[in-house]
Amino acid sequence: MKRLGFYLVLPIIYLISYLPFGILYLFSDFLYLIVYYLIGYRKKVVKINLKRSFPEKSEAERLKIEKEFYHYIIDFFLETLKCVTISQETLKQRWSIQNDAILDELLAEKRNIIVTAGHFGNHEMGNLALSFLIKYQVKAVYRPLNNKYFDKFFYDFRTKFGSILISMANASKEIGKKEDFNYAFFLVNDQSPPPERSYWTTFLNQETGFFTGIERFARQYDMPVVYMCIDRYARGKYRVNVELITKEPNTLPEGELLEIHARKLERDIKANPSIWFWSHKRWKYTKVNGEIVPVSYK
């Protein structure tokens, strides 16, 4: 059944992928009406996340962010399918990078680096663009799909411009691997981690846990850590901004690296809230009076 489903959907993927961007976004506007007004995909989750994150905003302001988010998430999905057939030339017209001199300096020192980010902006398209926007070899952690046919399909197009994908299960083995090239190891850190093994801080007005792997790996392998923000400044056009967190992770107090990551991501979300994934159940747990408690989305 999985194979049959894959081959039934494959022509639709290619049909969408070959659409010019103008028509793609007209199709996105149509799908938005269906997904938001008829299906209401995870609308309750989005509303709860926005209300808890922005209690100072009026209901009308949160509703505006909500609708902009749904417009964006449809764009994101269709842009990801567009990546199946997109060329480097097209990406170069739509993607740029700022402050990449930071990366050039670290590369000149022949240091492998960790890049930390969030699900902010189109990270799927960004994976393709960064493979030629930066001089480092891109290594990115991903979660394999259950359907092996779709998994291979998405793996192939995600790596077509040279990025190396590493499954989450192999991340700890790969991050300190000696190679004959220097690499940037990308780790996204804004999902819900195991609460007992998290770094806890106030994030978007809520007690929030973060995965600790970025700090542990950086300390263990003495790797500089860089934060990247993928900002959408126009429809289908993105700008990557690079910020150095630290060149010497072992000189920072424990938790400081993760705190800096949280503050930078929070800053970017507040500046452009519609392009973060509000439909995720990010806050499955929180802390009340120092105790970890589950969060209800009902």
From TrEMBL:
Localisation per UniProt entry: Cell inner membrane
Protein name as it appears in the record: Lipid A biosynthesis acyltransferase
One Pfam family, short name: Lip_A_acyltrans
Molecular-function GO term, any one: acyltransferase activity
InterPro entries associated with the record: LipA_acyltrans
Keywords assigned by UniProt, alphabetized: Acyltransferase, Cell inner membrane, Cell membrane, Membrane, Transferase, Transmembrane, Transmembrane helix
Entry annotated with the keyword Cell inner membrane: yes
Record field: transmembrane: 12-39
